[in-house]
Amino acid sequence: MIILLLSCGARTAPSTEPQPTAYHDQFTVAAVARVPDPARGGPPVHDGASPLPPFLGVDRATARYVGAEACSTCHAEAAEVWSSSRHADSIRTLDAAGRGHDPRCLSCHVTGMGHPGGDRPGLAMVGCEACHGPGSTHAAAPASGYGVLPSDGAACVGCHTHDTSPDFRWQAYWPAISHSR
Ligand code: HEC
Ligand code: HEC
Ligand code: HEC
Ligand code: HEC
After folding, report:
1. Which pLDDT tens digit goes with each residue over 4-26?
2. Contact 180 CB / ligand 4 (< 6 Å)
3. CA 132 to ligand 4 center in whole angstroms
4. Cβ atoms of 8 and 19 closer than 8 Å
5. In this predicted structure, what is the pLDDT of residue 170?
6. What pLDDT is stored for residue 1 in this prediction?
7. Best residue for ligand 4 mutational test, from 149, 157, 168, 173 (most atoms within 8 Å of Cβ)
8. Which ligand 2 atom is nearest residue 110's CA?
9. Which of these ranges, 32-46, 90-104, 106-120, 138-152, has the smallest mean pLDDT?
10. What would the pLDDT profile of 44-87 be if each residue is shown by its tens digit?
């Protein structure tokens, strides 16, 4: 942390505060990614809940989390990319660090924590719904569409923050998990 502060300070004016990186200036969406449920028709969000991406077409009053396995039956190609990514292993990383039950760590390493339906089995990873939003209504009626996301870091920076992922840039990170047609 000290090293981070010093190196940031060296590049810009001397400061005791961490400086936002260029990508944070570019994507002023961190606040959007953390818009609480009530703004989308859902119940209040507790501190330490998983960040919410700026998904579209998700009715927060009725949609619940179903888990990545339920998506995989219909989206085989996306599922293949996802299951070989580090997102699919995110809870094992915490376990390996001896922090698999630490509530301060879980919110970004699991899916849907603190949100309706976010406490069922099959969510102990950064699953499809961590980015696309709870998918029960879509899985039941796929033609209705759901979970459309922009081609930028808006769905990422709630978790990939300056502190947790200082090297994050959309252009560098998306290709590693890209699954659009
Ligand atoms: C029963 C089959 C089925 C299931 C289950 C399913 N989908 Fe879909 N999904 C579809 C179909 C069909 C479409 C629309 C056709 C298309 O564009 O591929 C679609 C479209 C999408 C889109 C694009 C939406 C748009 O409007 O462009 C996303 C994102 C998506 N699904 C994600 C998911 C996720 C995440 C899950 C699990 C929560 C899931 N799907 C579960 C069949 C399914
Ligand atoms: C719910 C939180 C969350 C969201 C949202 C999220 N990530 Fe992640 N991401 C993580 C975590 C946690 C890890 C580390 C997993 C591990 O190592 O076990 C990670 C790791 C990664 C890695 C691997 C990095 C490496 O060093 O190998 C890539 C690439 C990545 N994410 C891309 C993205 C992109 C692109 C988006 C947005 C479209 C995104 N992530 C959205 C939590 C998230
Ligand atoms: C704000 C969201 C967030 C929280 C909270 C969070 N992490 Fe992470 N974590 C991430 C992301 C994003 C990555 C992937 C970083 C990358 O590769 O760019 C990650 C990666 C990791 C890694 C892989 C090594 C690394 O540094 O890339 C470990 C270990 C880890 N986290 C442990 C923890 C622990 C322990 C806690 C609790 C003290 C925690 N995380 C809390 C988002 C988070
Ligand atoms: C780390 C965040 C993240 C995860 C996890 C994730 N997606 Fe996506 N997905 C995105 C983003 C961002 C886009 C839009 C990218 C673009 O348009 O450039 C997208 C696009 C899609 C599309 C639409 C493709 C298109 O071109 O219209 C489908 C379908 C989809 N994802 C399904 C899934 C399924 C199924 C899973 C899980 C197996 C999954 N995604 C996991 C972030 C994610």
Report:
1. 444 443 444 444 433 334 443 34
2. yes
3. 7
4. yes
5. 94
6. 44
7. 149
8. 1
9. 32-46
10. 666 678 888 888 888 888 899 999 999 999 999 999 999 999 99
Distance from C-alpha of 128 to C-alpha of 162, rounded to nearest angstrom: 23
Which residue in the block uniquely carries the two structure tokens 């890209």? 178
Average pLDDT, the chain: 79
Q: Is residue 68 classed exposed, middle or buried when 0-12, 13-18 and 19+ CB atoms within 10 A define those classes?
A: buried
State residue 98's pLDDT score.
83
Closest CA to 61 of 39, 83, 84: 39
What's the confidence (pLDDT) of residue 34?
Answer: 53
Plot region of 91 (φ>0 → left; ψ -120 to 50 → alpha; else → beta) = alpha
Give me ligand 3 centre to Cα 163, in Å. Answer: 9
Q: Distance, CA 178 to ligand 3 centroid (Å)?
A: 20
The letter for the amino acid at 159 is C
Q: Which residues contact 9 (CB under 8 A, 6 or more apart)?
A: 15, 19
Distance CA 3, CA 16 (A): 12
The residue whose CA has the least distance to atom 37 of ligand 2 is 156
CA angle centred on 117, ends 150 and 170, rounded to 5°: 20
> Could you say which ligand is closest to the alpha carbon of residue 180?
4
